[in-house]
Please model this.
Amino acid sequence: MPYSGQTFSNPATGEIVEFLETSNESAGQRVRFKTTIPQGKGFEVEHFHEIADESFEVLSGTLSWKLNGKAGKTPAGASITLPRHQPHAHWNADEEPLVMIQTISPCYDTDLFLEKLFQLAMDGKLDSKGQPPFLQVMVWLRDLKSRTYLAAIPKPVQNFLAFLLTPMAKLIGYRAL
Model:
């Protein structure tokens, strides 16, 4: 169970996350965490969240983002919200490390997902870009309330694949949390 002050790092990407407020502490309203992202890292794959808005308060560095095909940058001292159902991506394209406060609301089980993702990273089970195995993603998509979809693949196709593949994935050891 995640807790405030808990810190994770991803050895594959160098990203660091420190929980500032968990779902449990906010009754599911939000999860807040401080994120440090090295140059060229982040989540460049366009995706969307079914039920959550994602807000970023940039403390240092510059956040690069894409929202509905439009690219932009948010500098230190500024904030941006990437709304639910809208295809987006976010990463650090600059040389300086990006440090920001990220808030996801509502969050339901997002902090549990992040904890699992970073545990997989520490166990060496993510690829060199920090991405989890496809079957792990299918289990998350099927079992978590805080669903994240890839923007390039129709949502019904992703739901069908998750429905079809999750039982097999669980038989070979994949778990949502």
